[in-house]
Amino acid sequence: MRLVQLHDAEGHRRIALVDEPNLRLIEHYSSIYDLFIDALEEQSHFSDKVQMYVTDEEMDYEAIYSGNDQWRLLPAFDQPYDPLHCMLTGTGLTHKASAENRQKMNTLEQEGNLTDSMKMYLMGADGGHPEDGKVGVQPEWFYKGNGLMLRGHNDFLDVPAYANNGGEEPEIAGVYLNDSQGKPWRVGFVTGNEFSDHVMEKVNYLYLAPSKIRTCSIGPELVLDHDFQDISGTVKVSRKGSELWSKEVRTGEVNMAHSLANLEHHHFKYANHQVPGQVHIHFFGTGAFSFGDQVFLRDGDEMEVYWEGMGRALRNTLREVEGEEYLVITSNLG
Hints:
Blueprint: E1 2-7, E2 13-19, E3 22-26, H1 32-42, H2 46-53, E4 54-60, H3 61-65, E5 72-73, E6 86-90, H4 96-105, H5 116-127, E7 142-146, E8 150-151, E9 156-159, E10 170-178, E11 184-193, H6 198-203, H7 208-212, E12 216-223, E13 231-239, E14 242-251, H8 260-268, E15 279-283, E16 302-307, E17 314-320
Parallel strand pairs: 6-15, 8-12, 9-17
Antiparallel strand pairs: 1-2, 1-5, 1-12, 2-3, 3-4, 6-7, 10-11, 10-15, 11-12, 13-14, 13-16, 16-17
């Protein structure tokens, strides 16, 4: 079961069930967030709740997906009332290829030494799949921002004036919502472009944190019931209509140094991640990105991420924000 969120030019929102080649509108709810909240309160299955309110009213999915309709796709999940209560985070160094790319980016002067990035990956490979009921080794963790940084299919991903670069990171993200008691529930999975500043990170790996605070995208579809085990996909970058770079990618637990349960435990063990009503969108890492092959993206380049079983591909265009970095001056009332 796959769902989308839409809005028109006047800001009216709808949600719909994907029924290729159409979308079937869902009545009564304007956000998946509200639908899931009600399902939690009623202790009903989310999929049953969807079937209860889905209608026979159809929309042309292709027209909306391609941007040729008054309706536009929103991020596949969000916090519609207060984006500050949507936390965007991720776990890096979960895939060996990513760790190898970071090893090359942050190579030590002495040949043969391992960077901290590779050491972190190997710690996960050794202890990131614990037995049921056991706590595994802690993964890397990073903060990407709040819901104000979240974008959907066909939206721009921005390279701000203070940035050095922008590049795609093809991932799958988990979508979570805490109930009224603070207990986290997994809503589903989404295709994601975690989009980061790899040039800034390469200056010094301790710049990883600021390199991550950028816009990112999820969607176009929320998948409720995907088996997160072994998922293949493709990532592609196009420039002026021609393919510039592409690569096959794999994700899922069998391709990762950490199990899903271990990643979820180490994210939600913190009390401030258990706030009632809080939305969490957590990126699970990648095995390939164009910067690892020395490809530098430019203004207008299109990024595409596709995962089998996750619905249609996610497409976004890189946009370099005009102007120069300006000094932010704080004031006080003393």
